[in-house]
Amino acid sequence: MTTAQLASYRLYIDGDWVDGSSEDALDVINPATEQVIGQVPQASVADVDRAVAAARRAFDEGPWPGMSPRERSDVLVRFTEAITDRRAELVDLIIAEAGSARPIAEAMQFDTGLRYTAWFAERAASFPYLDSLPPQVSPRGLGQGVILKEPIGVVAAITAFNFPLYLNLAKVAPALAMGNSVVLKPSPHTPLEALVLGEIADAAGLPPGVLNIITGDVAASEHLTTHPGVDMVSFTGSDIVGKKIMSQAADGLKKTLLELGGKSPNIVFAGSDIAKFATGAAYAFTIHAGQGCALPTRILAERSVYDEVVEGLSAFLGKIKVGDPAEPKVTMGPLIREAQRERVERYVAAGTAEGARLACGGGRPAGLPRGFFVEPTLFADVDNSMTVAQEEIFGPVGVVIPFDGEEEAVAIANDTRYGLAAGLWHPEPTRAYAIAQRLRAGTVTINGGGGGPSPWGPFGGYKQSGIGREYGDYGLLEYSQLKTITWSAGRQ
Q: Is 41 helix (H, G, I), strand (E, B) or coil?
């Protein structure tokens, strides 16, 4: 499919492509060129009602929740295969719509998302949907029972712009695997990768209404999160919006799964391989132009190796090729929109005003008159109380903070309202593990981690980084309702 064809996308409701009830439309812009590459409807409140009604019917009256786990797994395996068949097209779309450099679009945006989807598709057949309660003897006799893990119902899935396909799949796949129906509402900046999933649902034979895809702005989102026909809201985005969604869902006591912001520390102790750390750390906070909630943007360096760390980071950042991600040699693309670039620039100005030293970058790259580009940026001599050390910037801006000893490192690392992820480099693995246990973060990697994310491992945050966990069996349980059934096995 070419980008010219993408303009024809409509809303995907009840297994059909339908026009929006509003005449308004959303332009989809390539953030590297500022060109319009597609157009989708601006879903109205009435469109949200149609999508929720379709999902409600599919759950209450349709076959999907009553299928055997094996039958649902078979459909989801076909769903995964249909995604795989369109890899080249989807990677190109990720580059054009989200501005992701090709290596990131291929390895992280597509391949990792597909790997999780394939895991959920297979796990749907073998997940333990029933647990036995141990027999219980009492004066009344012998009792037995089971715990059932049942689907919740209609899930509203609302996703962010930074990793669109990955995030869409991370919500749709486990929700469907558990037998729920879904209304997916992607970011208005990146709707196309979501709408492709409607075609993939058709190809896989997903029953009508099980997956519905709508677009829209804040009004559509708020109507979705407050809709009485919705049983659960799953959201990925900023903590500010997450709090609003939690408040909106509260009136109906809907279950919420919130994967929110982060200001993740990356701690390096003396005796570590500083060159290896610096290369990995600089790459990690500039992935996808720093637009990632778990990226380790706070670099904590033990004072004896502090200068070496700053020099190593600056050297790597100076080699990053910034530009149109469609070009083969580019390793970092643009921010998503001009408003996001202006936000990053305000934080850079705040860092300088508060006394941090600008060690690298801080401006707009030369020779790129169009597109929302910024330079990879590093602040040194940062105090953890500074704005650039506390606020989620969502751009390629790292800060380096010195520390003296383990106690101060842990104190600084935990001194944030977030707790999504953390990195830790230490020459003694057993000591590193002990430190990792003290970090208030949902995911901690030691000396570079264990070869990438595992589909079995839960992901989520402490504090204001969210509520609940995604991925693995823990992620499936989030989309489940637990029911205990007991019976008498014999009377005294």
A: strand
Does the pLDDT value for residue 6 go beyond 60?
A: no
pLDDT digits (tens, 9 = 90+) for 126-136: 999 999 999 98
Q: Which domains does the chain have, with CATH numbers?
A: 3-260+466-484 (3.40.605.10), 265-455 (3.40.309.10)
Q: Distance between CA 459 and CA 463 in Å, rounded?
A: 14
pTM here is: 0.95
Task: Reply yes or no on whether 478 is catalytic.
Answer: no
The single residue of 106, 193, 293, 302 carrying the catalytic annotation is 293
DSSP string, 206-267: PPTTSEEE----HHHHHHHHH-TT--EEEEES-HHHHHHHHHHHHTTT-EEEEE-----EEE
Report the first-to-last Cα separation within the chain, whole angstroms. 70
What's the token pair of residue 146?
């089971």
The answer to whether 360 is a known catalytic residue is no
pLDDT one-digit tens code per residue, 243-289: 999 999 999 999 999 999 999 999 999 999 999 999 999 999 999 99
Provide the greatest CA pair distance for the chain.
Answer: 87
